[in-house]
Amino acid sequence: MSDRLEHPTLYEASDAGPPVLLGHRCGQCGLAGFPRQSLGCEDCGAGGDILKPITLVARGKLVSFAVVHRHVGKDIAAPFIMGEITLDDGPLIRCTLSAETPGALMIGQSVLGVLEHNPAADASVRELRFKPEQAL
Amino acid sequence: MSKRLSDFRPVFVVGVGLHRYQKYSPTPYVALGVTAIREALLDAGVAWPEVESAFVATALLGMAPGRPMLRHLGATGLAITHVENASASGSTAFRLAAMEIASGQSDLNIAVGVDKPAMIELGSRQAGLDFLERERVAAFTHFALLAQKYAHEHGATPEDFARVAVKNLANGARNPYAQRREPKSLQEVLGAPPLAGFLTPLQSCPIGEGAAATILASEDGIRKLGIDSRRAVRVLSSTLRSERVYEDNSGFDAALTEETVRQTLAEAGVSPSALDIVELHDAFTVEELLYVERMGLCDPGDAPRRLKAGHFDIGGEVAVSPSGGLIAMGHPLGPTGLGQIAEITRQLRGEAESRQHPNAKTGLAHMVGVGAVCAAHILRREA
């Protein structure tokens, strides 16, 4: 667990279970948001301390996915799979799916976050990805 | 209570002009823009000094490109306003020009869009927030995610999406201003390696260069300048909205389209079934299927069947993107929304030549811009 995280301001490991994403909840309207910020709630506009830092468990339902065949960045080699996920804790996020994701993905299936190495990056760095829960 | 465009005096499109959309070339943007403006002036039958103000739409040219272009028409001292609203820049310039005429601040003005391809940083990337997906969701991946979801919900096949490109490329082949002017078969559209998910390169719009201009006038302006009122097309409504927090935020483009188009139809007093022409933001094929449904042109999930049956063809129930849309005509950003207005104006006048939709009376122009924003206008032939 001494590896560094690719985006330490966005997520962290959790001893209690899956990784957690660093978000906030609006004390005025209750909307949970990601990434964490205090500038203002996207739904009701409340800002500052009323937006409370929370952690969001990296678990949710797969809303959609797409195999990306063309990618100009050096951060990951194509093809890779991009997923759209509604977290059980609320927010809709987009995140790369695990390189070990099986071919038969299904919209609506449960997915869980894992911290894994990216072959295109430094071997000591891990990044958050998601994979089908039954594949774990 | 706030007022709508239709609460003020009538506004008409009296002239349209374009420089063909094309791949990046050494041609300066000034030459592109001046070409479109001179064509619009000729079309309206007015001289440049009669134009009281100009709204210049660009997304990629940088600060203040308007006067270096407009000076070549004669530096009359007219008001110049620059408009940037991503892909909806041209539509937004048109809205501001229409509002200015409607309010009585001018009797004749111009909205002109011009752009050349350039790499720029989106505002959202400078907003101070980090993103999990960073640069891994290109525009084609965003729409591939929507296509996969649509296929899951409605049983659509890769062919269903590709047929949008086949139709729009066939329309573009008949449009002298289109960037892509070669019709393609279903096999050709599907034959290339995909960018992401179902989406192949021909299901993605080309980002090139070009220009489009529309001249707007009041009834006073038409009378005073002796403009042919039989060729004037009325602007019935103008609506501009932005994204909210939706229950299903994964489909925000379509949700925003639905509420924007519903509002503009209500303002115009027009039902979806009365639309003869629809020019919509088909940057990617899946968008046409999503948007025609959310605009109320057909039931949810029925767009692939109707498309296959020819309902959205020129000569069908409603001609969707007879210009070729963004897929074929191209998407140079600043000009795109104004190019839609030009196409609808020509269709409503009966001047669209080989791509003329019969008896076209009412048209809808729709653009979505990154942000997201959405603009919609309804035009009608009065004469």
Written description of the protein model:
- The complex is a heterodimer of chains A (136) and B (383).
- In chain A, the strands form 2 sheets. Chain A has a 6-stranded mixed sheet, with no helix packed on it. In chain A, strands 2, 3, 4 and 5 form a 4-stranded antiparallel sheet that branches.
- Chain A has 136 residues and is an all-beta fold.
- The relative contact order of chain A is 0.22.
- In chain A, strand 9 and strand 10 form a beta hairpin.
- Chain A starts with a strand and ends with a strand.
- Chain A has no helices and 10 strands.
- Chain B folds into 2 domains: 140 residues, 3-Layer(aba) Sandwich (Peroxisomal Thiolase, Chain A, domain 1), CATH 3.40.47; 183 residues, Thiolase/Chalcone synthase (Peroxisomal Thiolase, Chain A, domain 1), CATH 3.40.47.10.
- Chain B starts with 11 loop residues before the first strand and ends with a strand.
- Chain B has 383 residues and is α/β, with parallel strands linked by helices.
- In chain B, helix 3 packs across helix 12 and helix 8 crosses helix 9.
- The relative contact order of chain B is 0.20.
- Chains A and B meet through strand 6, strand 7 and strand 8 of A and helix 4 of B.
Keywords:
heterodimer, A: 136 residues, mainly beta, 4-stranded antiparallel beta sheet, 10 strands, B: 383 residues, alpha/beta, Peroxisomal Thiolase, Chain A, domain 1, 2 domains, 12 helices
